[in-house]
Amino acid sequence: MTSRPGVDLAGRTAELELMDSLFVRLDRGGSGLLLRGAPGVGKTALLDAAAARAADVGMRVLRASAVEFEAEMNFSALHQMLYPLRHHAERLADHHRDVLHRIFGLTPGASPDPPTAAAAVLALLAEVTVEHPLLMIADDVPWLDCASATALGFVVRRISDHPILFLAAIRTGAGCFFHQLQLSVREIGPLTAQAAAELLDARWPGLGPSVRRRLLAEAAGNPLALRELPEALSEPQRSGQDPLPALLPLSERLAAAFASAVERLPAPTRKVLLVAALDAGADLTTVRKAAQVSAGDDHLAPAQQADLVHVDAADGHMSFRHPLIRAAIVHRASPSERRSAHHSLAAALAAFPERRAWHLAESATGPDEAVARALDEAALSAWRRGAPSGAAAMASDEGAVFDRRRSTASGAAAALIRAGELSPHPGDRSRRLVEAAYLATITGQLEDVPRLLADAGQTLHTPTGLVFAVTAHLLTNDEGDVDAAYRFLARAFDDDTAPAKNDNWHCYGILYAVLLVSLYTLRPEPWQLLKTAMARFEPTAVTPFRLCYDAYVDPTRTSDAVRKGLADAFAALPGDAAPWELIPLAFAAVAMDALSDYRYLVRRMIERERDGGAIAMVIPALMLLCHDSYVHGQWDEAETLAQEGLDLAAAYGYFFWEQQLRALLASGAALRGDADLARTRSEETTTWAAPRGMEVTESYARAARSFAALGQGDYEEAHAQVARIDPPGAPSPGIPGRWKVLDLVEAAVRTGRMDQARAHIAAAQQAGIHRISPRIAMINAGAAALTAEEKEAGPLFEEALSLPQAARWPWEHARIQLAYGQWLRRTRDPRARLYLSAAYETFDRIGAKAMAQRARNELRATGVATTTGPDAPTAALTAQERQIAELAAIGLTNKQIGERLFLSHRTVGSHLHRLYPKLGVTSRAALRAALEAMAPGEDDQASPSAFLAEVQDGRQSRSAAHD
C-alpha cells in the first residue's frame, strides 16, 4: 500500500472549503458544525484536516475522540479535550479552578455537577482565547459521557462571543443530544466514482483490472473500505492471479464499522439478516421462508429502524444500505451458521434452479457431483442456448429477462469454478475449469484465463478443442496475435472431427474465435476454416455465422440473400439473445451498410451486458455502432461510442479492440480535417497491426491517411495510401476495399492517371461491387461520373445523386455533389453554385472542416463569398421568405417566382425588400452567399440540400410523365 499527502481527502473539496470559511469568520464570533455520515465515510479524516489547517493559522486545537468503554465515566471526554489547558486554570477564580482540578483529577473530591462544570469550562475557554483562537473537536459524539456532553452543549450554545470553532462528527442514524443544539449539519456522503478511483489507485496501484472494479463496486464510495478492503486480500488476489471470494474479507476496522449496529440487534433479527445477506436477490417472502419466520413476526423492524436494510413495500425487495453491511453480517456468522442459512435458502428456492444450485454449492462440505452438475447446468443453460430458464422463461417483464441474462453472464465463470471444486472426478473438474476459462475470455476476466487452464490440467475428458479456442481468444484479445490464434483454432477442429451438435456450445465458442480472426486478416485460410467448421452443423444452427461469411467473402453474388437473411435473423432474435448470436449479425450488417436498421437491438445488448456480462462482445458492438454513426454523418455520436469502447477495452485489458477503435478514430480525425492527429493515430495503429498480420486493421489506418490527404488536396499521398488497400485496377469486395473505389478513382483522376481510374471503375463494375449495398452503388456511380467523358459526366453525376437513399450517407453524397459542382463550374453551368452550396452545407453540418473549406473555395471561384462563425448572418427567415430568396438566388425574376408560388410580382418584391436587411445584403446578387452563411439549423426545411432534392424530384417527375 502506498500513500500521498491529501489522498485521503480526494473528493472532499467542498467540505474543506466550508470549514475554511468557518475559520475566516472567527473574527466575527464562534460557530459550530456537525459532520454526519455513514461509518468509514471520512468524517474523522475531515476533522484531522481541520485540525491541521487550524494549527497552520495559529489556532489552538482541543480534541476528544469518544469511545464506548468510557461512556459511563463522568467527564472522561472533557478530561481528554481540556487536560492540555490545565495550567491555564491557575488564572481563574478559585471556584472555577477547583472545579477544573477535580475534572482533571488533580485534587481529590467528588465530581462537580454538570452546570457547575460547564460554567468553569466556559471561563477557561474564554481565558485561553485571549491568546489564541480555539478549534474544539469532538469525534463520535454518541459515545460522549453524559456529564461531558452536557458541559459541552452548554459551552457550544455560548461561544458566539468568542473566537471558538466547534466541530463534531456523528454516524448517520445515531442519536445524541447534539441534535438539540441546532448546529449546522453537513451530510458527508460517499465519494464520487472519480474520487473513489483516485483514492484506490493512489493507495493501491497495480491492482488487477477485475479486482479494481470489484473493490470499487463493493466500497461504494466509502473511503475506509477503499483503503482497507485490498489489505485483507492476498497479493495473488490483488493482482488477479487468484480469484476473489463471493464476499470480500473485512479488516477488523471495517468489520467493527459495519457490524457494530448488527451486534446490538436481537438474535432473530440477525438470523433473518444473515439469510438476506447470502442472497442479494431474495425478496421478503423468500427470506422469511428460509429463516422459518411467519409473516406476522416482524423481525426485520429493528434492522429497518437502525437503517441497515430497506424493504420495498411494492415488491418486497430487500436491499442493504451499503454493500459491506452484507459482508459484515456474513463475516460475524460462524461457518456452520452460514452453511445452515445456505441450505435453508436452497430449500426455499426450489422453483429457481440457478439460485438453488448456488446455495447448494455453498452449503456443501465436500465433493458432490449432483450439486456440481446442478450448478454447472443452471449457470450455463442461458449462455449455451440464449433461452430463458426458470421463472424468467415465464416473465413478461422484459427487464427481468435482461437482468437474468446479465447475472448469468457475470456469474457463469465463477459458477463453473465452484462446480470444478465440487467435482469428484478429475475429468469433470478439468472440463468445467476449461469452460470457465472460455467464459472468462468473454466476460472481461482475461487475467484469470492462464490460471484456470493450468488448474484444469489434461485428462482424457478435457475438451482439448476448447482449450485451443480459449488460447486463441487470449492471443487475439490480449496480444493481437491472429496468426498464432489461427494455428490454435485449426488444431481445435483437427482435435474434434465429430459432427457438431446444435447445442454444443464448445463448438460455438470455437466458431466465434475463428470468425474474429477471419474478420481482421485478408488471408483466405481462416475464412475457409470457418466454412469447414460451419459444415458440421445444421445450416439453421449457424445462420449468424453463415450470413457474416457471405457478407464478407461473397457479397456481390449473395447481396440480396444476405440482406433478406439479416432482416429475418434480426427479427427472429429472442429478447435475451446470446451475444454470440447478435454480434456476427451486426458485423454482417455493417459490411452490407445495413446496421442502422438494427441499431436498437445492438444497443439493447450493450446495455444488458456491459455491467459484468459479455464485455468481449460489448466492445465490438460499440465499435460497430461507431462505424455506422460515422457513415451516416453522426460524428459526435460516433466519437462518444468509440470513447465508451476505449474505456471498457482499457479497463478490461482488451487491447485488440482498443486498436480497432483507435483506427476508426484515426479516420474520424481525418474526416474532420485534423490531418496531424489522423496521421499520428494511423501510424500508431499501423505500428501495432503490421507485425501481427492484421491487414484489415492496417487498411483502416491507411484509409485514415488517405482521407486526411484528400482533405488537404494532397492527391499523390491519397493515391499512395489507398493503392495499398486495393491495387489500381483490382478493386476488392472485401473490407474496407469495397468502400474505397471513389477514393482511388478521385486520387487517380486528380493526379493525371485517368486511364488507371477508368480501368479501376470498370473492374469494379465487372466485379459487381455496386450490388453490395445502395451506399456502394452511389460510391461507384460517383466514381464512374468522375472518369466519364465531358458530354457524359453530367447525367452520370445526376444519376449517382438520385440513387435511392443516397443522402443517407452524407460524406460520400456531399463529395459527389462537390465533384459535380466543380464539373458544372468548369462547363460554366449556373447550377454549379447550387451543388457546391449543398456540398458545403453538408460538410459544414457533419463537421468535415477540410472538405467544407474546399467547397467554400469552389464557391468563391463562382463569385460567391461565404462566411462562417461569428460573422455569419443569424437572421431568421420565414418559410415563404426562404423560398423566395432561394428562387431569386438561382436567377428567377419576380414574375417567375410569383408564378411558381402563386403570388403577385409586387408581393414577391415586398418580401425581397424585407428579407434583404435580415440577411445583410442590398441586392439579389448577394443572396446565395448570405443564405449559405446562415447559422446551421435555421429553417432547415428550405436548405440548399432540401431545395436540390425538390428540384431533382421535380425533374424525375417530369421525366416519368414524359416517358
Explain the overall architecture.
The protein is mostly helical and 963 residues long. It contains 47 helices and seven strands. The strands form two sheets. The chain has a five-stranded parallel sheet, with helices on both faces. α4 (94-104) packs across α5 (114-128). 51% of the residues are buried.
N-C termini distance:
83 Å
Strand content: under 5%
Strand order, sheet with most strands = 2-3-4-1-5
Number of helices: 47
Write down the overall geometry: globular
Number of strands: 7
Overall mean pLDDT score? 84
Low-confidence parts: 1-5, 385-407, 869-875, 935-963
The helix content, as a percent range, equals: 55-70%
Oligomer: single chain
Broad structural category:
mainly alpha
Main sheet characteristics: 5 strands, parallel
In brief, what are we looking at here?
The chain is mostly helical and 963 residues long.
Mind sketching the topology for me?
Layout: H1 13-24, E1 31-37, H2 43-56, E2 60-65, H3 76-82, H4 94-104, H5 114-128, E3 134-139, H6 146-156, E4 164-171, E5 184-188, H7 193-203, H8 209-219, H9 223-228, H10 235-239, H11 252-263, H12 267-278, H13 284-291, H14 301-305, E6 309-311, E7 318-320, H15 323-332, H16 335-348, H17 353-363, H18 369-385, H19 398-421, H20 426-442, H21 449-456, H22 464-479, H23 482-495, H24 505-519, H25 524-534, H26 543-553, H27 555-572, H28 579-591, H29 599-609, H30 615-631, H31 635-652, H32 655-672, H33 675-689, H34 695-712, H35 715-723, H36 741-750, H37 754-767, H38 774-787, H39 790-801, H40 810-826, H41 832-846, H42 849-861, H43 879-889, H44 894-901, H45 905-919, H46 927-932, H47 944-962
